[in-house]
Amino acid sequence: MTEQTTFPQGFLWGAATSAYQIEGSPLADGAGPSIWHRFSHTPGRTHLGQTGDVACDHYRRWAEDVELMHGLGLGAYRLSLSWSRLLPEGRGAVNPKGLDFYSRLVDRLLERRIQPMVTLYHWDLPAALDDRGGWLNRDVVDWFADYARVAFEALGDRVTLWATINEPWVITDAGYLFGVNAPGHRNLFEAPIAFHHLLRAHAAAVRAYRANGRGKIGLVVNLEPKVPASDRPEDVAAAARDDRYNNLYHLDPVFFGRYPDGMQDVFGEGWPAFAPEDVARIREPIDFVGVNYYTQRVVRHDAKAPLGFSSQSVPGALTMETGWQVVPAGLTRALLWVGERYGKVPVYVTENGAAFADPARAPEGRLDDPLRVRYYRDHLLAVRDAIQQGVDVRGYFAWSLLDNFEWSRGYSLRFGLVHVDFDTQRRTVKASGNYYREVIATHGGVLAEPVSAAP
Ligand code: BGC
């Protein structure tokens, strides 16, 4: 640790991706289809009908991509496994070629001194399991634990950082309540049930890991601080409800073994009477919390919105292409909040990044993205603030290494440190990638110097 930076020794400087968003070749070498393969091939579900059939072609270009990471100086890389590459039917027979792919990738990362953090589930449920009810079927907990065991056995000798599930809240909010993500349901009654099974599956995988695992395992959640739009009681109550739904909902069961009070108030008649002993089993000690942070919301009461609240923008704040506002201080707030509510626990920022408009091509072999450079500097300073205030932050993963398939928005949004020309698959490190390389090389020292945000 250098004195002026305050990033602890051993702090991991990483970048993140997920399987369906970058790999392409979703059915290659015996893999089974996932719900995202099915969803993106259903007319009308994604931007211009785009799919992850090719994406960044990482399934074939993985070696080149590891060199890219090495060139950036990354010390860690967060990737996810495709469940249906490993188990084409979601359960039963293992596909050795799927395992080989990840095994080779992990070996190469380690050769390049890049520590892998492996997420077991980043939204791509095997379609064969969805046919059996997917996350709505109680049995999914056993299916997931079995799959986790396959992954631990195959990679656990080399991978020592595991995340069970990426963002249970988004999976159910977007996938089961609002229907914009796979499997595309819109059902108030289903969303809490799928959510409950996701958390039960998470806990089952943690228990499975404890049997033999030699490393650390945690859960990845997206946190969004909520600020009431005014001090009118209905806005204050709306912000509290949104906070309960978006923040307390996933971590209270994990740390306290119960859902926060007032979930009925969020879901109304959609909130089921979960058996308390069932919820209690979600409380399984974890080694870290993975925090994905993109924005903070200003919330107001909105009787017309499905859950009775909506967010409004802050005039003057910079807005990303996703419509999310840039609020770096919200990241400090989110990190502090974890410790305040759940006690001191190691934290990784498992995703943080921004989609700003970049051209489809980078003809000069360079690409200036000053807004993203600025975004990273300000958010890394926000992480540093949290560390200075006592939060045990162990690492930071930029989202994302590469421009990629941004779910139902297809290729219309670019989050990468590295630009991808989707016609040629050419990779070009953006200015933000070069900046992050410097951050890593100076262990955060360069953050002390201002950067220009002029586009
Ligand atoms: C997800 C990523 C996604 C990012 C930007 C996160 O919720 O984990 O897969 O690309 O947000 O939308």
TrEMBL record:
<dbReference type="InterPro" id="IPR017736">
    <property type="entry name" value="Glyco_hydro_1_beta-glucosidase"/>
</dbReference>
<dbReference type="GO" id="GO:0008422">
    <property type="term" value="F:beta-glucosidase activity"/>
</dbReference>
<dbReference type="GO" id="GO:0030245">
    <property type="term" value="P:cellulose catabolic process"/>
</dbReference>
<keyword id="KW-0326">Glycosidase</keyword>
<keyword id="KW-0624">Polysaccharide degradation</keyword>
<keyword id="KW-0378">Hydrolase</keyword>
<feature type="binding site">
    <location>
        <position position="166"/>
    </location>
    <ligand>
        <name>substrate</name>
    </ligand>
</feature>
<feature type="binding site">
    <location>
        <position position="399"/>
    </location>
    <ligand>
        <name>substrate</name>
    </ligand>
</feature>
<feature type="active site" description="Proton donor">
    <location>
        <position position="167"/>
    </location>
</feature>
<dbReference type="InterPro" id="IPR018120">
    <property type="entry name" value="Glyco_hydro_1_AS"/>
</dbReference>
<dbReference type="Pfam" id="PF00232">
    <property type="entry name" value="Glyco_hydro_1"/>
</dbReference>
<dbReference type="InterPro" id="IPR001360">
    <property type="entry name" value="Glyco_hydro_1"/>
</dbReference>
<comment type="similarity">
    <text>Belongs to the glycosyl hydrolase 1 family.</text>
</comment>
<keyword id="KW-0136">Cellulose degradation</keyword>
<feature type="active site" description="Nucleophile">
    <location>
        <position position="351"/>
    </location>
</feature>
<feature type="binding site">
    <location>
        <begin position="406"/>
        <end position="407"/>
    </location>
    <ligand>
        <name>substrate</name>
    </ligand>
</feature>
<feature type="binding site">
    <location>
        <position position="122"/>
    </location>
    <ligand>
        <name>substrate</name>
    </ligand>
</feature>
<feature type="binding site">
    <location>
        <position position="21"/>
    </location>
    <ligand>
        <name>substrate</name>
    </ligand>
</feature>
<feature type="binding site">
    <location>
        <position position="294"/>
    </location>
    <ligand>
        <name>substrate</name>
    </ligand>
</feature>
<keyword id="KW-0119">Carbohydrate metabolism</keyword>
<dbReference type="GO" id="GO:0005829">
    <property type="term" value="C:cytosol"/>
</dbReference>
<protein>
    <recommendedName>
        <fullName>Beta-glucosidase</fullName>
        <ecNumber>3.2.1.21</ecNumber>
    </recommendedName>
</protein>
<dbReference type="InterPro" id="IPR033132">
    <property type="entry name" value="GH_1_N_CS"/>
</dbReference>
<dbReference type="InterPro" id="IPR017853">
    <property type="entry name" value="GH"/>
</dbReference>
